[in-house]
Structure prediction request, 1679 residues.
Amino acid sequence: MRFRKFAFAAAVGATIFAGPQSVAPAAAETVLKAVMHSDVKIIDPIWTTAYISRNVGYMIYDTLFALDAKNEVKPQMVDKVDISADKLTYTMTLRDGLLWHDGQPVTAADCVQSLKRWSAKDSLGQKVFTGFVSEMTAPNDKTIVIKLKEPTGLLLFALAKPSSNVPFMMPKRIAETEPGKQISEFIGSGPFVLKRDEWKPGDKIVFTKFDKYKPRPEPASGFAGGKVVKVDRVEWLAIADAQQAINALSAGEIDYMEQPPHDLLPLVKGDSNLKIVVNSGVGQFTFRPNSLVPPFNNPKIKQALWYALNQEDFLKATVGDPAYYKVCKSFYPCGTPLATTAGMDGLLTGNSKKAQELLKEAGYDGTPIVLMASTDLPILTNLGPVAKQLLERAGFKVDMQSMDWQTLVARRNKKDLPNAGGWNAFDTAWVGADILNPVLMAYMNAACDKALFGWPCDEKIEKLRTAFMKAPDAAAQKKIAEEAQLAAIAYTTHIPLGEYSAPMAVRKNIDGIIDAPVPVFWNITKK
Amino acid sequence: MSDILVVDRLTVELPPGSDRRYAVEDVSFSVAPGEIVCVVGESGSGKSVSSFTVMGLLPREVKPVAGSIRLEGEDLMNASEKRYRELRGSRMAMIFQEPMTALNPVKTIGDQIEEVLKVHTQMSQAERRARVMETIGQVNLPDPDQIVRAYPHQLSGGQRQRAMIAGALALDPALLIADEPTTALDVTTQAQILQLIAELRARRGTGVLFITHDFGVVAEIAHRVVVMQKGKVVEQGLADDVLNRPQHPYTQMLIGAVPSLTPADRKPLDGAPVVLHTKNLRKVYSSGGLFQKKRVVEAVKDVSIDIRRGETVGIVGESGSGKSTVARCVARLIDPTAGEVAIDGGDYAKLPERALRDHRKRMQIVFQDPYRSLNPRRTVAQSMIEAPVNFGMSQAEAMSRAGDLLDLVHLPRQSLDRFPHQFSGGQRQRICIARALMPQPEVLIADEAVSALDVSVQAQVLKLFDEIREKFSLALLFITHDLRVAAQICDRIVVMQKGAVVEQGPTKDVFAAPKHPYTQALFAAAPGKQIGNRI
Amino acid sequence: MFGYILRRLVSTIPVMFIVALIVFLMLRLTPSDPAAIIAGDNANAQQVEMIRQQLGLDKPLLVQLWVWLSSLLHGNLGESFFFKKSVTSLIADRIEPTLALAAFTLVIAVAIAVPLGIFAAMRRGSLLDRIVMGFSVMGFSVPAFVIGYALIYVFAIKLQWLPVQGYSRIANGFEPWLRSLILPSLTLAVIYVALLARMTRTSLLEVLGEDYIRTAYSRGLTPLQVLVRHALPNAAVPIITVVGLGVALLIGGVVVTESVFAIPGIGRLTVDAVLARDYPTIQAIILLFSFVYVMINLIIDVSYTLLDPRIRY
Amino acid sequence: MSDRAYTQTFSALAKLRIPAAAKEPAIVIPAVILGILALIAILAPWLGTIDPALLDPTQRNKLPGFVGQITLADGAKAPFTFHMGTDNLGRDIYSRVVYGARISLVIGAMVAIVATALGLAIGMVAGYVRWSDGLIMRFMDGLMAIPPILLAIALVSLSRAGLTAVIVAIAIPEIPRVVRLVRSIVLSIREEPYVEAAVTAGTPTPVLLFRHVLPNCIAPLIVQATFVAASAILVESILSFLGVGIPPEVPSWGNIMSAGRQYFRIFPHNMLYPGVCIAVTVLCVNVLGDALRDRLDPKLRKRV
Prediction:
């Protein structure tokens, strides 16, 4: 870019227009500027399930175990783990040289306390730790011993849980914070250090390389392997307007954009300075009916939904480019071990005739469906209108109410009737890492009042989920998962609406991006 | 000695769409050194346009199209704008009617006088200062040191006009144009300003072109008089000739209409009962609040007035004397602070609005400004029947009464369906009088009711007041600042100063032998005493 | 004078109290639940209730009002529900960009608008006058964000003269700071220039019709002298009044402009806080903006005394 | 403002006859354009439009003039030309813009009506009922101290978003300005001799207000209302832009623009058509307001 003299120079003063290179930092520090899918308002990744807090967690915290690119559990902070023959005692030894950001060594006691706080909050953690773990101790600074009541194949998976809430390790004094309260000190042992004084919600959050971090020797793979940091400083800027973020990317003001809207990808493709990076991680659109209140308290009426809805329509309307979406008639992400289309024959194709018949049989009385549609998250915005149109075609009466996501989040907790402030249905999206199996999948929880909003209530599903935890091997797990899917279709806990991938846009000089379900910043280089 | 100003066959054209084509048509007059020439006429006569044309201050749309103007021999009609600017302020100067608005409110008096010197001379600052002080002294302003630093709003009306004159005369111009310079002033102040202008003229030999509508003022200072009507000069000559032997019927009519300062003969009314009675009427305004200094203004102090049936009582006084406040208290447009106001003994000074209604129809009021006294959106009939219908009269009955009263005020009955803007000022004031009579009041209050009218119309309206007073045996409370009007219409007069009554008595007695010094000063200041006495 | 300022300061208390009351009631009487938002997506009812208790939202309305008002009186704006920071520090973090943006805009706007208004008034009815007035009406008719996008497209994307977005703190150097402010300020200035140019013209025309202008001409002053010595000093009061009233416009514009240009100022904080139902932050921001508005108008009122000797308090 | 100015207003209003106004281009041109827009709004279903909410995921982001087909509510398909293209849900922008005229004009008109009606009522009470004056005006001062857009944002986003909520939220911040205007008119009118004459005629206060005071407020209020309407249409688009406006599926011009703004660089038609509509409408209303003001009351400039 060159300095242009005419017209403006005289008016405002020539140096103003000298171009952005004049703003480059003085030192030869490499700074990676990124725009993430959301601004960081809360850091405590145990207290909240917000994905952006999870992403921050991967920057500053580390985990005992981690999933690699093949979704296999690998040790991370742990050096080795010994499992007793009866599969009831797990003895884990920490790696040497692990340090907290304040310089203190990481101890087993820190990890035990961190696991306690995490397991009090996380749904999988609760299931595993209250259902199976009998005792957890730290006999010395390096060793963690977990004893089980009965065997489960899920303990190590839980400790490597890739998405919210991730069992991140924190110093003991911080992990002693009540699980219901947010922590206020952010010290981890991860590859980046949070620059607390530069964290300005709504503006930016800054991380610097943790010099004393000791990466594992293996090459990085998924969340596992050596977390080698190759930039000095990472800044996440808050630019809410996606087009503006792409403009900034084009202008070189930022280097990395986590989630450019699919419709704007042509702008990225058209710019020779930019490239698109596609992650193998996927997201799943989901339709969640409220099983507690009429008319969806009638499973028969819910059955009509399976015929009314059509994955293709949702995917086209929200993603558009077939390169970035996939019809996937499975509760579990397609391409993962448990994926199955069992029970999905003829469903989710927009068969409105069949849906109408079912509604008639079920005696649907024309009660309007209050469909909550969120309007401020680009990826979700278009789901509501599509659902409305498809449901109406099937003979439902639909009262679509638009609101911002925060309002929706508040309202979906209400058990009232729709006309008294409650609701009937809404659409959302899950990342694949959150729905890998029936236990992890929060919407499959059918524990009535204890279930999440929507409150599905089905004994059979619950029994299958418990059985899944006790399943001895992968084959058994797969069989139970399939049965759970059939039960969930029969009951209709929720409806998968297809999968999408969310490509990133980065400048050409950015390389080494790890293919993981969560955007992580180690191994990235900036030339 | 040649004339300073010669205006010859001047014609000024108005923009298209005006009510007439020429503001001034074929007008000729001249001003000699040391001479005061009065241009006199009613509103719309073109007298002001003539003076603005001389100064070259006409609005862009209004243009002189024929004739010539010569100032000290120099042709002004063809002078460049630059030459005009040089002449303005140095060779000819002008003073205006309203000294408050004619002075820049955000600059000191000293600055504004000095400005003329700055623009036209090369004087040093010290010289200019000295000249400013000198000029201020010449217009008899007290304490020049303080005056130069004062802002216009800190001076009284008379002082402001003196400051204006100082600014105008600072460079000793040959011609001073005075456009109604005393109209906005009280009569005592007016006398002083007139005297000042006459003095300065005599001392410096300045020619003065004096624009006025007031024959009293003309008689007081004019050497020569130019009478204008509808843009044309109808008569001009020496003051003595024009005032005492007017030739043109219009001049005769104008002079004839000026009320005499000698009170008219009026029958005494000793036997008639008192209708309106005020006793120790007081009105205090207080302002300020929690954090502000409290300011208390006593607008009316202990005013006691009685008016008999069929009697006209005038309250005279200068601005700020409280005369209008009395009228408004009596009409209960404002609430008196203390005292009594009673009609036929019924005191209503303190009654709340609801209880006041029965009293309202017994007292009606006619205001000064005929243009604002009638709701422009309502027909004459609607305005007139409002009161009687409020007081319970049927619509039809009220309409027929309205017609009768229009007859009485000499307006055609068809006027009922018209809107106020279709009438002239005098006609509107007649409608207002008729409206006031609708609820058959016992007391009629006229608050400066003839002050805004041209003198010829004024005479007719005054006559109308007298007629209706007689016909309905009204008690008429007549508020006026004009001694001539008071002399002609009042049976008794009350003289007020600073909220208090200083003297009251039968008009004849007060005029013949004013007792209070203030009354004496007031009478002494009245200009042109001989005017109106004869015709 | 001093007494007057004191009196005016005291008189802002009831106004601010009413603002506080309006804001408080507005927030509490509308259906929204900050606790649910804070609790997050997977929280259950007990967790939400617990947070509600932590925030004091379970208490009766009057108690909440009392708690808030009494802490306000102690100068404590409270703690943000959402950001877990004191509102004061939250605002302190954000004040610089907003202040810089507003001040810079004000300077640009006054520098452009006042001369334009004067020219238009002096050449009333001329082509220039029509252009200025036409521009002024257009300035009122196009949403600010459209102007912002257009400016970005031309100057940042096509010509690449100026940054697309963001704000560079003045501590990081004057030049980047100025560069980052130009486009947002121009965006924000458009409506302000429109308003101010029009009001300058109107006030000046009004003053030019006054008697003392005629007096000045009668004393032989040139039109320029009349303008500078007599018309402008008298037109200053209404012009400055509009500058003050326009601050409300500016504050509204800041919200939009900061969103367009991703400037981390108070305007964006407002939108974030509203979307997050962050009551203490919303309350504090509205109070702050109202206070600024009231104070600026107070300063302007006081400045009248300097401009117009008739106004004495 | 001087009392005289109001007297001028009345006579000006009396003079404002249709034939005279019809000669003034600044009144006629915007009035005609607004009339056409209103007609478009009313006749929307008959102007070759389809259901503005009808979406077709197969026809997203089509450029203006695209010839495709639409799927009707019953599933049948029919050929259709998208004159202004489609948005990213495959909705016909032409239909949305035409139906949008309804929403946007209704918002402009309703906000103007609500704000001036309430402002008139409150202002008259404040101006004439002395004891209420202090109370009302302090409250109005407070309301006025809150920047209008902030107040509107808070009001809309906190209450359930909907057309009514938006109208109320935009109208409320306008009220204090109307109240001040009305109050100052009432205060000066109540000193007019003809009002005092009515007082002495025993006219009860409510009648007095209605008969003598109210008519004087109408001319300035008409002028004020036009400016309120213009700003309401703009504020609606700003609220939509900030994501706190009426539900996005409702086709208001602001919403169409706001939905399209993300794709401005690739599909400018999304923003262009509604943008032009807003600008033209607001421009017309503003020009009309200016012309009416100049005609009705030159002195009013200072206040509006």
Remarks:
- The first helix of chain A runs from residue 8 to 12.
- Chain A touches chain D through 35 residues (CB under 8 Å).
- Residues 55 and 518 of chain A are 7 Å apart (CA to CA).
- The mean pLDDT of chain A is 87.
